[in-house]
Specification:
heterodimer; A: 110 residues; six-stranded antiparallel barrel; elongated; disordered C terminus
């Protein structure tokens, strides 16, 4: 399992649930129902400011754990990824890649 | 579809909830909700505000509490298993609300009311179960929500899979059927963690398995996402851990999703939970329906359930009357007439009768007779205790109050209007405030509890919110900053709301340095400071804790504790969870019994006078009192020398002379720098002048420039102007300027004929955005129809609008002016006893050392500490020897010496007199440091002299220092029957002389350090050579200077004030004491910029400025620059004619050097 913060392009269903994504030049399809939660941020260490009225996204961020498979390849192995969507820009970033051989561990706070 | 939130903490859940009831209600109503719950932690702290907010937003209120429950398996006194939400059922004539109040009181009953107690606020499950049913019908009146924070919810994260079910079943076994529901909450936290969907699913399944209804909630702590960060900071403040520590624990909220989500969002959450549980649409519908069904059961009818706005007073039998309360009140008023107005006849009698009839009719129509009798009963009880008491506030407007001895002010004499106090149009219980001696306040409270019974009385509480200093401290704690650093920042914050911290950084000169540090963004430190500012602003005004209100006592009937939860106060007496804003809505009768230190000081002075002069003749001689009707002295002095202060006539000329001299330090209400300036300008000649003076010295009149025209008219510099001749009778006493509320009422009445009762309603509407317009419309129409010209109407309306909302009630002023006059009278006639009383009870705004300096200025000898003569109180004493022989002096008290404990003090006094140090050691068993400190303060000097030793105080201190502390052998030193030989003190006699005697500076430093008072000499005296070189002018010389003379003044700070000013620009008043008197200086904007951090952080100041003459006897300084006198290298020494700065020796240390312990020395205030 590794920690990343790479940009990914994600195609979502109207409900906001990820369906497909482009990452590192490859196209992936979500192949199982994803899990969504809100994880804490250490905002006091990461942020410069926290004024009243800064709105959502300061204390937590939305995380989707998706199982994906290469769209354009017959490879049967799937990957488990943790994605996060930035509240302000709506852009997605890749947080973690879970090694399929290791049991899925409790996510560490990002 | 609408959704009802059943679990919502408001900001009144101290250190937990973030949002105010009004914000929550407005948001809920905005989303289409029809009801909203308020479930604050541990109590109903926000409930009444919630009711008001719900009514304003058109919601039905739901009332509940978030309460800890003891762990049945653990120690039942200290271990909490979890927290549950308890909701009161509504529309059952208050049965649900009653049970809730009693349950909450149960939860607090075992706590101590002091911070940091070992026993938490919590109920046992048995208590909870016993309160859930109606005591008669046995129907459920409460519902308990078992949610994520309950023992069941908390067990879900554990390893024991079956544990939650076991715990849930226990609840079902313990609670009566129909009183429990499962609370399903998902805050979408990471899978498997508390508040996750997985836990919500388990709770849902437990409910289904046992056939218990489940409801959906979001365990709300803030109205919107933005509040989440504030909640983090509050968690830090509550647990006293920094955010990084809490995060590592992990004890922070799982994420920031605990906000008041919309109905659509809650439905979506429900869907997700059902989906995860594998349930279908019907189950979702069921969950939502059960939530709404419970909400419907819990809708509260404020009137029927909580007695909304229905005044309740003690039962007639309790106040000792059998028949009709009004009949009784009328009879007591009749009795009062013969006592207060003996032999009154003719027109005055007619006026009196008509006024009394008028008041009684209004009291009758409101049904408040029992209320007046209750207040009279309390007042009588206090006077019977021999405690000084005086009514204050608008209660002084009532003749009834005067006749039944509640008030000491005759409203007819001062033209006070009853309607300002009470009228038919004002159905709320009026306020009657009683001032008592501060030292007796707690005894008075206890007597009220005894007299009325503890089921009818409770103390009122008050909410303490975050202000700038506390907020910056807790924000700093959250960020993990060092305490010293936060302390330095907090010290610079001077009375502004934390909400405007960032704004203040730009504006306030004293924060310039800090602002500079925030501004540099290159360093990581500054990220932290930037956050510090933001978090401080977030905490602004949020409630921190409740405490006993300084004066409010709630009186009710036997149902009082069904209507308010109570908890122990620090005093041990129970305290309501409601504050003063909740009284009127809840129909609670509140009596303000305020402890006033000045009353204690005056009582003390009267006792000292009688102790020193135990006969009328002696008192008359000592106080230079008039000979009185029969030549033996005035009637207000009884044969044993006791002065009846309340009977002293209010026209004593020497007293007014003292007041006009502006040497009013220590006098009630007129000692502040601003008041001394005003007194100097106004030059009071009679009691009514004092009333006007006190009424003028208020933020409103000062801000709106009422004072200047008033003074010009008073002194005849400008002709008096009346907007219309009809108003002349109304405004004559204040020379055409509207000062009093009473004048506003009469103005309305004269120009519209509306009657005084409506006039008071109009007055209250002034300043209210919505209502003021209507008042204006009415006023203009009616005044025009009565023939007043448009110009007159315009002008008068302008006055009403400007002054109406903050003018002063004359009755208040009159009630205040009585102790003002009495204290000035005592200072005039018995200054030694009066000053001793002031030192003892420290009533004023200044540090005690200034009042000691005042004694020095008046030539009253200050007698040093003496182990055999000093008592536990200050004492007036006839000086036996020396240059002051025969004068009255004040002996210092043993109380208030640093490090001397209460028990040591008691033992010293009990064992007096002592013939030697050994005797003192043996019988008082003082600790070694205490003996040393007493020696440093010269307490043994007289013993030492008597022993005939040649050594000095320094030798003695050193001797005591080197003594081995020997173990105390009790009971061996004195053998019964054996008389000690009068050898004198061998130890002192044989003390070796060797050290140089302590200098005066050393002695004064020790006095300041250990007593916060400079006794042997004024602390500025040793700086005199330096001040002479600088060319400083002393306070006593200022009055002789022309207006506008440039001067340098110097002294120790005694007061710092930043009153609100016209135009909103801050003005800082700093008063310094230089030993010859006080110099009051004012710093306007530019001078503040120049003085910067010196404004609030320096004890010894050198100030340059120009004199401003404020009146025949008053002068102050308009400052242009200030220096820290202790930093001599920065001072502006005059350059000699040669142009070469002379070589100067460094200044020797002054008395304040090296003292950091005691801030009470100077007037830095809080």
């Amino acid at each position: 399992m590794g920690m990343f913060s790479e940009s990914v392009d994600v195609v979502c269903a109207p409900s906001g649930q990820p369906l497909e994504l482009d990452w590192a030049g490859r196209h992936y399809t979500v192949c199982a129902e994803p899990v969504r939660w809100y994880g804490r941020r250490q905002w006091w260490a990461e942020e410069q400011r926290a004024p009243l009225g800064s709105g959502p996204g300061l204390v937590d961020h939305e995380i989707w754990r998706v199982q994906v498979r290469r769209t354009d390849s017959a490879e049967p192995d799937s990957l488990t990824l943790d994605l996060t969507r930035h509240v302000g820009s709506g852009r997605w970033r890749l947080l973690r890649i879970h090694d399929g051989l290791l049991p899925v561990r409790k996510p560490e706070s990002a | 579809m609408s959704f009802t939130h059943l679990h919502v903490s408001t900001a009144f859940s101290a250190h937990y909830g973030v949002s105010w009831p009004e914000e929550l209600a407005a948001a809920a109503a905005g989303d289409g909700a029809t009801a909203l719950a308020c479930t604050d932690r541990d109590g109903l702290y926000g409930t009444v505000k919630h009711l008001l907010a719900c009514m304003a937003a058109g919601l039905d209120p739901i009332v509940g509490v978030d309460l800890a429950v003891f762990d049945d398996d653990g120690d039942l006194r200290t271990q909490v298993g979890g927290r549950v939400i308890v909701l009161a059922h509504g529309n059952n004539n208050g049965a649900g609300y009653r049970a809730l109040c009693r349950l909450i009181s149960d939860g607090h009953a075992r706590t101590t009311g002091k911070a940091g107690g070992a026993v938490p606020v919590a109920v046992t499950r048995a208590e909870l179960a016993s309160r859930t049913l109606h005591p008669e019908t046995l129907k459920p009146v409460l519902t308990v929500l078992i949610g994520p924070d309950s023992d069941v919810g908390r067990a879900m994260g554990g390893r024991r899979y079956l544990r939650p079910r076991t715990l849930f079943k226990r609840w079902l076994d313990a609670m009566p059927p129909g009183t429990v529901a499962a609370e399903v909450v998902s805050q979408l936290s990471p899978p498997g963690e508390p508040f996750s969907t997985a836990h919500a699913v388990r709770m849902l399944k437990l409910a289904a398995e046992h056939g218990v209804p489940a409801v959906l909630s979001n365990a709300v702590r803030y109205v919107a996402e933005d509040g989440a960060a504030t909640a983090d900071v509050l968690d830090s403040a509550r647990t006293l851990k920094s955010l990084p520590e809490l995060s590592a624990a992990p004890q922070l909220q799982p994420n920031g999703q605990g906000w008041l989500k919309s109905a659509a969002q809650m439905l979506q959450l429900g869907k997700e939970i059902m989906h995860a549980a594998g349930y279908g649409a019907a189950d979702l519908k069921n969950l939502m329906a059960q939530t709404e069904a419970l909400a419907d059961r819990c809708r509260i009818d404020p009137v029927a359930d909580m007695g909304w706005k229905q005044p309740v007073v003690p039962e007639a039998s309790v106040i000792g009357i059998a028949g009709d309360a009004l009949v009784e009140l009328t009879q007591r008023c009749e009795a009062g007439i013969s006592k207060r107005f003996p032999g009154i006849t003719g027109k005055p009698a007619e006026e009196l009768r008509s006024r009394l009839g008028h008041e009684l009719r209004i009291i009758d129509s409101l049904g408040f007779a029992a209320y007046f009798l209750t207040v009279a009963e309390v007042s009588r009880m206090i006077l019977d205790m021999g405690v000084r008491a005086a009514a204050r506030g608008s209660g002084a407007s009532s003749l009834v109050n005067y006749l039944i001895d509640v008030s000491q002010v005759n409203p007819l004499e001062h033209d006070l209007i009853f309607e300002r106090f009470l009228s038919r149009d004002r159905a709320t219980l009026p306020d009657i405030d009683i001032d008592v001696e501060s030292a007796e306040r707690h005894n008075v409270y206890r007597r009220i509890f005894e007299r009325f019974g503890s089921e009818r009385v409770t103390l009122m509480s008050m909410q303490n919110g975050y202000r700038a200093r506390g907020a910056v401290r807790d924000a700093g704690l959250a960020l993990g900053m060092e305490e010293g650093e936060i302390g330095d920042i907090a010290k610079q914050l001077w009375r502004f709301s934390a909400r405007n911290f960032r704004e203040a950084l730009e504006e306030k000169p004293e924060l310039k340095e800090f602002a500079g540090r925030v501004g540099q963004r290159d360093f990581s430190e500054n990220q932290q400071l930037d956050l510090l500012v933001d978090l401080t602003e977030r905490l602004d005004r949020l409630p921190r804790h409740i405490s006993m209100h300084p004066c409010g006592v709630i009186l009710g009937d036997a149902t009082l504790l069904d209507r308010t939860p109570v908890q122990p106060s620090g005093l041990g007496l129970p305290m309501s969870q409601f504050d003063k804003h909740d009284m009127d809505p809840m129909g609670m009768l509140k009596l303000d019994v305020l402890g006033v230190r000045m009353q204690s000081a005056m009582a003390f002075a009267v006792r000292e006078v009688i102790r020193l002069h135990p006969s009328k003749a002696e008192v008359v001689a000592a106080g230079a009192h008039p000979p009185g009707p029969d030549g033996t002295g005035p009637d207000y002095i009884s044969p044993d020398g006791k002065i009846n202060l309340n009977a002293v006539p209010l026209d004593d000329e020497p007293t007014y002379e003292l007041i006009r001299s502006t040497h009013t330090l220590g006098c009630f209400q007129i000692e502040s720098p601003g008041q001394r300036e005003l007194i100097g300008k106004l030059a009071p000649r009679e009691f009514n002048d004092l009333i006007i003076d006190i009424s003028l010295f208020r933020p409103g009149p000062m801000k709106s420039d009422m004072v200047r025209p008033f003074l010009e008219h008073r002194h005849g510099f400008a002709p008096e102007v009346y907007p219309h001749p009809d108003l002349k009778p109304v405004l004559k006493e204040t020379h055409g300027v509207t000062v009093f509320h009473e004048q506003i009422l009469k103005t309305f009445d004269v120009m519209t004929g509306c009657g005084l009762a409506r006039a008071d309603e109009f007055r209250r509407a002034l300043g209210n955005e919505v209502l003021e317009g209507k008042v204006e419309e009415f006023f203009r129409k009616e005044a025009r129809s009565r023939g007043y010209s448009p110009q007159v109407v315009d002008k008068v309306w302008g006055t009403l609008k400007a002054f109406g909302s903050f003018g002063f009630c004359k009755a208040h002023g009159a009630a205040f002016a009585v102790p003002t006059y009495q204290s000035a009278w005592l200072k005039t006639h018995h200054p030694e006893a009066f000053l001793a009383g002031l030192w003892e009870h420290d009533p004023g705004m200044y540090p005690k050392r200034l009042l000691v300096a005042e004694a020095r200025r008046l030539g009253i000898p200050i007698l040093p500490l003496d182990i055999n003569r000093s008592q536990a109180e200050y004492r007036v004493e006839r000086v036996a020897t020396g240059p002051d022989r025969g004068k009255l002096g004040i002996r210092l008290s043993l109380n208030g010496i640093y490090g001397l404990s209460g028990t040591e003090l008691k033992r010293i006094v009990a064992g007096q007199p002592y013939d030697s140090l050994a005797d003192l050691r043996a019988r008082s068993r003082l600790s070694k440091p205490s003996i040393q400190r007493l020696a440093q303060l010269g307490a043994f000097d007289s013993l030492h002299r008597a022993a005939g030793g040649t050594a000095n105080r320094a030798d003695l201190v050193q001797h005591l220092q080197t003594l081995q502390s020997r173990p105390q052998r009790k009971g061996i030193d004195v053998i019964e029957g054996q008389l000690s030989l009068p050898l004198g003190d061998v130890e002192l006699k044989n003390l070796k002389a060797g050290l140089p005697a302590p200098t005066l500076v050393d002695t004064v430093r020790a006095e300041l350090d250990l007593m916060a008072v400079d006794v042997s000499d004024h602390l500025m005296a040793s700086h005199r050579p330096l001040l002479n070189r600088l060319g400083v002018t002393t306070a006593d010389q200022l009055l002789g200077l022309r207006n506008g003379t440039e001067v340098l003044v110097a002294g120790v700070r005694v007061a710092t004030q930043t009153p609100p000013m016209r135009g909103g620009r801050r003005v800082v008043f700093i008063s310094i004491d230089d030993g010859t008197g006080c110099v009051d200086s004012v710093f306007f904007h530019e001078a503040q910029e120049l003085a910067g951090p010196l404004l609030f952080g320096t004890r010894l100041l050198l100030i340059r400025g120009t004199t401003r003459r404020t009146g025949p006897r008053g002068i102050s300084i308009s400052a242009s620059m200030a220096w820290d006198l202790s930093r001599t290298e920065t001072l502006p020494f005059p350059v000699p004619a040669s142009g070469i700065p002379e070589h100067r020796e460094p200044e020797p240390p002054g008395p304040l050097d090296g003292i950091s312990r005691n801030l009470a020395i100077t007037g830095l205030g809080g």
